[in-house]
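Morning run. Coffee first, then this:
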Amino acid sequence: MGNGIKWIVVNKTLKQLGVGTGSWYDFGGITGSRPERRQRWLDKIAAVNFK
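And here it is:
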């Protein structure tokens, strides 16, 4: 289902709003994840260079 969401939201809707490109970062299973895993995910996202 992630590919369908990416295709519609990132590639179509955002382009219609004037956002040229985008990336989809998904953290599946957040409900059952441990706080340590969540923190690692947040650290990883914080290191991404968003332009």
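The CA atoms of residues 39 and 50 lie 19 Å apart. Good start to the day.
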